[in-house]
Design brief:
This protein is an alpha/beta fold and about 450 residues long. The protein has one domain. It contains eleven helices and twelve strands. The strands form four sheets. Strands 2-1-3-6-9-10 form a six-stranded parallel β-sheet, with helices on both faces. A two-stranded antiparallel sheet has the order 4-5. Strands 7-8 form a two-stranded antiparallel sheet. α1 runs parallel beside α8, α5 packs across α6 and α9 crosses α11. The longest helix is centred in the first third of the chain and has 17 residues.
């Protein structure tokens, strides 16, 4: 059993209640309605990534993410149980994957997270329609589950908070009028009472990266109106899975355990404080996995091998056009990178969801044997070891002491060497020579459960 599975087993199991469709009468309001809301990752789209479109030049650059795979197994049952999906920022496919236009890439969304708030409002509207129609407003229990990856994880967390703070209109119960001003025009709109007793039963997020605006410059829990704080007294179960090998200088991770009373901090003197994770282990867990961003959230495709190149000599033009000889050293063969590392967090998130009684159909996850063995070796090494020094948050450049204590020994494991060769992808920021592979930011986290 992996560290993730042990942590999941330690969570208090959610109470189950048989779903009974509302009868449609006020005398029999018994029943449960439930909806799953899925926000995909940056530059990820179910429509685009599953259906290569010749019109769109970027359609083959990603595979379906773990969010998509969980969306596909969320159960549908008449009008009382359904999943809804929204493509990630940086793509232009329609919500729920219905169609796309002639471009597969939106640079503003991909670079700056544009369109994030619109997705939150879209989610609120979906809940409004779901809970208000088909007699669902008579249901005694109204529940929802939320999943997200990357900026979609940040959107998912803000969405859950928005349901709590803004509320969901009950379209069956008018409550006068409300007024709003657009420029110099006052618009009158119908007002409604809010649905009562809506419960966020499960929040499952992969590698939360907010970066709304310029990446890395603001990592607080309130980013330009985005509230990433997870209230353990409101959300019944929360699971956050993060990438241990992502370079965070421009791709910062937002922990579940941020202190809501702390202010945003960029410099060392103002780095974030964190709540004690162990205080919330019954309802919230945060687990790290080997790999980069999409090695956890999914979406990588097979990276082709790079052939070996022998040493060679070239003549180049020098000053005044005089040629000079340059010897270029041999370049070794680089094997292809496989995408299956993301199956391990997918499997664990699925198990966590099932333990929380999320209505999912069967999901078959086949992890290659070599990967399973290497991951088990890594997991055995990691068990009981913390990820960072005390409650210190490392923002930009981890110290040599930190790297020595928490990475150097790990990176010498035969399992890690093999994982890096065959499965762990280069971070999206790793090609910049200014950023070395060692410059990783890992948030404070308590030790994973021991075997």
């Amino acid at each position: 059993m992996s560290a993730a599975e042990r942590a999941i087993d330690n969570m208090t199991k959610a109470q189950a209640m048989p779903r009974i469709a509302p009868s449609g009468t006020a005398e029999c309001p018994v029943g449960r309605v439930r909806i799953g809301v899925f926000f995909d990752g940056t530059n990820n789209s179910k429509q685009r990534d599953e259906n290569v479109d010749a019109r769109n030049p970027g359609t083959a650059e990603n595979a379906p993410t773990n969010v998509v795979k969980l969306f596909q197994v969320y159960k549908t049952e008449g009008t009382v149980l359904k999943p809804i999906y929204h493509h990630g920022v940086g793509t232009d496919s329609h919500a729920n994957g219905e169609g796309s236009s002639n471009t597969a890439y939106d640079w503003r969304g991909n670079a700056f997270g544009g369109g994030g708030k619109a997705r939150v409002l879209w989610g609120l509207k979906q809940l409004e329609d779901f809970y208000s129609n088909n007699n669902n407003h008579l249901a005694k229990e109204k529940q929802y589950d939320t999943y997200g990856f990357s900026r979609g994880a940040a959107i998912a967390r803000d969405f859950v908070n928005s349901v709590k703070t803004i509320g969901i209109n009950n379209l069956q119960k008018r409550n006068g009028w409300k007024y709003r001003t657009v420029g110099r025009v006052v618009i009158r709109e119908p007002a409604y009472e809010h649905h009562k007793g809506i419960v966020p039963t499960f929040l499952g997020v992969f590698d939360t990266v907010a970066s709304f605006g310029l990446g890395g410059l603001d990592i607080g829990n309130d980013l330009a109106g985005y509230n990433l704080f997870v209230d353990h007294t409101y959300v019944e179960r929360t699971v956050h899975m993060a990438a241990e090998d992502e370079i965070r200088s421009n791709f910062p991770l937002s922990s579940l355990f941020m202190d809501p009373a702390d202010k945003n901090g960029f410099w060392a003197s103002t780095r974030r404080a964190y709540q004690e994770p162990q205080d919330y282990k019954a309802t919230m867990i945060e687990l790290f996995y080997p790999g980069a961003h999409s090695d956890v959230g999914g979406g990588y495709i097979i990276t082709p091998a790079i052939p070996a190149k022998p040493a060679r000599t070239e003549y180049r033009a020098g000053p005044r056009g005089m040629p000079y000889k340059v010897t270029i050293p041999a370049e070794p063969y680089v094997p292809p990178k496989q995408p299956e590392l993301a199956l391990i967090p997918l499997r664990d998130m699925y198990k966590a969801s099932k333990r929380a009684e999320v209505p999912l159909n069967n999901l078959t996850v086949s992890v290659p044997g070599d990967l399973e063995g290497w991951y088990n070796e890594y997991d055995g090494y990691r068990a009981g070891r913390p990820y960072a020094i005390g409650k210190q948050y490392i923002q930009m450049f981890p110290s040599k002491e930190y790297r020595t204590m928490y990475y150097d020994e790990r990176d010498k494991l035969p399992a890690m060497i093999n994982l890096k060769i065959h499965y762990i992808h280069d971070s999206r920021w790793g090609h910049d020579k200014f950023l070395g592979r060692k410059q990783r930011t890992v948030l404070y986290m308590g030790p994973q459960p021991k075997k």
